[in-house]
Amino acid sequence: MPSAAPASSPTADFGPALLEAVGIHTFYGASHILHGVDFRIGPGETVGLMGRNGMGKSTLIRSMLGIVPVREGRILAGGQDLTGRPSYQIVRTGIAYVPEGRGIFGNLSVRENLVMSARPAPNGSTDWTLDRVLATFPRLAERLGQAGDQLSGGEQQMLAIGRALMTNPLLLVLDEATEGLAPLIRKEIWRIVRLVRDTGIATLIVDKNVAAVSAITDRNVILVKGTVVFEGASAELDAQPDLKHRYLGV
Amino acid sequence: MSFDVFADPAIFLVQLLNATQQGLLLFLIASGLTLIFGIMGIINLAHGSFYMVGAYAAYAVAEATGSFWLALPIGVAAGIALGYVLERLLFRFFYERDHLYQVLLTFGLILIFEEVRGMMFGEDTHRALTPEALDFSIPLLGVQSYPAYRLAISVICLLVALGLYLLISRTRLGMMIRAGAYNREMVQALGINITFVYAAVFGLGTGLAALAGLLEAPVASVEPGISGRYLIISFVVVVIGGIGSVKGAFYGALLIGFVDTFAKVIVPEAAGMSVYLLMAAVLLWRPTGLFGRPA
Predict the structure, then answer these.
(1) Taking phi first (over 0 means left), then psi (-120 to 50 degrees means alpha), and beta for anything else, what does residue A101 get?
(2) Integer Cα distance of B238 and B246 in angstroms
(3) Domain spans of chain A?
């Protein structure tokens, strides 16, 4: 359980990493985006990844998931070195990805979006069934037959999270899950993220709302220009307003 | 110009059945083409070669064993296997390439297929035996009659179309195929091996083209150059129906079957242009085809 780890001890041993980057360098064409980033997240851990726009947060996630290639460094997932492997092999170690922009299949129905990629966890457990996901997101239950592109932004976000849970993940990666949503919907998304975290699923959260992130995470990492400039517990971050001001602009 | 075809209900019925059969057969070829083009973005000029593989399989197996029905599974399996292997060995390296490279690759494949065909079967014209059980005619109105085998082609094509519809709309593989056409990166990021889905789609498409060749072998000549028999027209179907839309390929193929068949009896002088005029008209009305997604 995440709550078992004291928040004041960011280096607490959470066991072998679910997902780990070791000294990775990533390029988009000629531009050097990540400069030797180390990052790890262990079972049940809740980690916030922070930084201003364009600092490399999404690129770090996409590099670790094998969506964009790393030029140097290693990617480990589920205890194996999966550097250079296709993303489907990396996420099959128990990772679910909710991308920025949600990545809903607009030409598939809500039901199809949910069941298409459903699978048991690596250990075979199937805690998250269609029924449980629909009980968690009653709005989706009312729209099962509708095409994905007919949903509102908030509903699409719920669908993206529901779809991720259908893969019975050990780690949920949320990239800008509340972006562009109305305040009430944001609140609902945060409620669900807490709920997911409390079931023991590790979560990696990228979000512009620093206060909302640090309120939920055990540990936070700040990226500036593709380099990790801070790593520490939420309390540690809250105690250093100048740090937040300098690196996050809040 | 002559409208005699409408004067005699029996002749009209025969043309109607011909148009349906031609359209449905065209659908088998075009559905694979539209899937491969729409999902993987591959322009496969060698698609017609799989029709040829089917036609020659029908001829060779029926000749060797005396059974046309044995040729069906063998020929379809050959078409699927060949498509699958070529996808793994060649096509997968061309997904990200410009269409020009794909055209060069697949044009080269046409030449190789044609050369191998020549070495195996020579340059003679053949015809597969009509299956005995269907080698009779069904009397229609008046003195007209219609070959039972041609009706059987239509029935088989309709069953395949139904199966394809169920596969794409009801199964998880079908969902992956559709999702892959929408956002292939996300499909991968959800843990699905899209390369397997691609190879499956490729094999499915080439298997369908082979099936068309098999089915038509008893009623059309099996001869050099048949790989080009439906190639251009099936691209016209893909464009009319909307790239990537199997439903569009179905209606587009039937539309072309009807226009082509009736143009031949009504305005034989201009029949060759009819389907291209149809395509131009459809594109003016709907630039992405009947069922294409707006760009």
Answers:
(1) left
(2) 9
(3) 1-93+216-250
- The pLDDT assigned to B295 comes to 59
Question: Could A103 and B183 be called an inter-chain contact, meaning their C-beta atoms sit closer than 8 Å?
Answer: yes
Of A65, A116, A167, the CB nearest to B179: A116
Chain B's closest residue to A66, CA to CA, is B189
Residue contact B191–A112, C-beta within 8 A: no
The pLDDT of residue B209 is: 97
- The chain A residue lying nearest B191, using CA atoms, is A88
Which residues 40-99 in chain B show a CB within 8 A of chain A?
Answer: none
Instruction: Report the distance separating Cα A158 and Cα A114, nearest Å.
Output: 11
Q: Identify the architecture of domain A1-93+216-250 in CATH.
A: 3-Layer(aba) Sandwich (3.40)
| Distance of alpha carbon B67 from alpha carbon B62, whole angstroms | 5
Q: What is the pLDDT of residue A1?
A: 39
Q: Residue A105 and residue B193: Cβ atoms within 8 Å? A: no
Beta strands in chain B (DSSP E): 137-139, 145-147
- Distance, in angstroms, between A97 CA and closest chain B CA? 7
Q: With CB atoms and an 8 Å threshold, state whether A107 touches B193.
A: no
Distance CA B89, CA B25 (A): 29
Name the more confident of A131 and B144: A131
Residue B2 pLDDT > 90 = no
Angle B160-B158-B110 (CA atoms, 0-180°, nearest 5)? 55
Q: pLDDT tens digits for A51-71? A: 999 999 999 999 999 999 999
Span B126-141, pLDDT tens digits: 988 888 889 899 988 7
Strand ranges, E, within chain A: 19-28, 31-41, 46-50, 72-77, 80-81, 95-98, 171-175, 202-206, 219-224, 227-233
pLDDT tens digits for B152-162?
Answer: 999 999 999 99
